[in-house]
Design goal:
The complex is a heterodimer of chains A (about 210) and B (about 220). Chain A has about 210 residues and is an alpha/beta fold. Chain A contains 6 helices and 8 strands. In chain A, the strands form 2 sheets. Chain A has a 5-stranded parallel β-sheet with strand order 5-6-7-3-8, with helices on both faces. Chain A is globular, with a radius of gyration of 17 Å. Chain B has one domain. Helices cover about 80% and strands about 0% of the residues of chain B. The chains are: A alpha/beta (about 210), B mainly alpha (about 220).
Chain lengths: ~210, ~220
């Protein structure tokens, strides 16, 4: 499986935000997208996921097989919002996404243990703190299997220990043959190629290096 | 798909879901009519089916704006749209419509016979009206879904949805009411308008979710 972007351009409200973005991602590789506010990091992630139309260029997933015919079907998208219902309990939320997206490697309880939220699955999601909500959303990545993780500021609101734990999760995902594209301001603590948005959008950047 | 249905039903009956909002509004509309019209029992029983249908129609429109907006605000909608390859988006929308109908509109149908008593309707008329509501109200939800999908990005989209959707619900209202009258007033037919009503529901059950899915796909930002 290989994710390829060539000459990708994105726009917001008719204004070009970036253009000429290119990269290729093989299994086991991670790409960190950095750049100042407004440089189009989130827009790039949403274009990769197919939630926004691309203004120009090509984006394709090679050799996805029957399970993953398109980028959208192969990706987990973790956006600014956590996509969890405050009125439902954490476990109910995760169970829903697990049923809806297909079963993954870990069960709901197991995933909650992995992100350090073991034993609070029965609490309504609305009762959790910002960092705990983020961790519950990260558990969502584990309950269903997707080879490509698109992460938009994944560590926003996490404490140091959780950041380190999440770095471990991402490394594990890459070692297992997964791919990650993460937009962030903070160092994620994983080995990844860097794509700088903003000042150097025209430059075709260094391709991903194996981790 | 079943999990989506169960989740939406559960959200509907949990705190802040607003399952009873429609019923209470329906009750308020029907309870005030006799005071406005006056104590003319014959008149009340004659306009009863129409008033029940209008009340139910307006109550149906009440909760529609939250159909996709709640999912959009917490980011779930993005993930539902992304799931298009596994669960066709139109089907996802259909399931959400059915859950919305079962959670918010079915209580209206259940409450309708009781409210029919307020209008001095005879048992046969009440039964016919409840039956036409049962068959006809899904159509309103299906059209409403298309309106809700168009207005999903607007913070105060509720009124816009009503304005968009109301003209399209008129056929449903007309055939629903004429079937209800057909059951009691003798020369009028019951079966023909009732079957047209059922056909409208089936037709809109395809058209509504399909167009809502189209609007949602192009409405993400």
């Amino acid at each position: 499986m290989r994710l390829i972007a060539e000459d990708l351009g994105g726009e917001r409200g008719g204004e070009a935000v970036f253009s000429g973005i290119g990269f290729a991602l093989d299994p086991g590789q991670a790409l960190v997208v950095t750049g100042p506010n407004g440089s189009g990091k989130s827009t790039l992630l949403r274009i990769i996921a197919g939630l926004l139309p691309k203004a120009e260029g090509r984006l394709l997933l090679e050799n996805g097989g029957d399970d993953f015919p398109s980028v959208a079907s192969a990706c987990h998208y973790l956006g600014h919002q956590n996509a969890m219902k405050t009125a439902l309990s954490v476990a109910e939320n995760l169970r829903f996404w697990r049923d809806f997206n297909g079963r993954g490697d870990s069960g709901v309880e197991e995933a909650l243990e992995t992100v350090g939220l073991g034993g609070i699955g029965h609490l309504p999601f609305g009762y959790l703190s910002t960092g705990q909500r983020r961790r519950a959303a990260i558990a969502k990545l584990l309950v269903s299997h997707r080879p490509l993780w698109l992460l938009d500021e994944p560590t926003a609101g996490l404490d140091k220990a959780s950041e380190a734990r999440f770095a471990g999760l991402m490394t594990k995902h890459c070692v297992a043959g997964g791919m990650i594209v993460a937009a962030t301001h903070l160092p994620l603590g994983i080995e990844a190629a860097e794509l700088r948005m903003g000042e150097a959008t025209e430059r075709l950047l260094q391709q991903g290096t194996p981790s | 798909m079943w999990s989506l249905f169960a989740r939406d039903i559960r959200l509907n009956i949990r705190a802040g879901g607003g399952a009873l909002t429609g019923v209470i509004f329906f009750l308020a509309v029907i309870a005030t009519i006799p005071f406005g019209v006056g104590p003319d029992l014959k008149l009340l029983s004659r306009i009863g089916p129409a008033i029940l249908w209008i009340g139910a129609l307006l109550s149906c429109l009440l909760g529609l704006d939250r159909l996709f907006q709640a999912d959009r605000e917490d980011g779930s909608l993005d993930l539902l749209v992304l799931g298009n390859d596994r669960h066709m988006l139109a089907l996802t929308v259909l399931v959400k419509c059915l859950a919305h109908w079962a959670g918010s509109v079915l209580p209206l149908v259940v409450a309708a016979p009781l409210l029919g008593l307020f209008m001095n309707m005879e048992p046969l008329g009440i039964g016919a009206t409840a039956l036409t509501l049962l068959v006809g109200t899904p159509a309103i939800t299906f059209i409403g879904a298309a309106g809700a999908a168009v207005a999903v990005a607007l913070p105060r989209g509720g009124l816009l949805i009503s304005v968009l959707v109301l003209p399209l619900t008129i056929p449903v209202l007309i055939f629903g009411v004429s079937a209800s009258y057909g059951a009691t007033a003798d020369p009028d037919p019951f079966l023909q308008p009732f079957l047209i009503l059922a056909a409208l529901t089936l037709f809109l059950g395809v058209l509504g979710p399909a167009s809502a899915a189209l609007a949602l796909r192009h409405g993400t930002d």
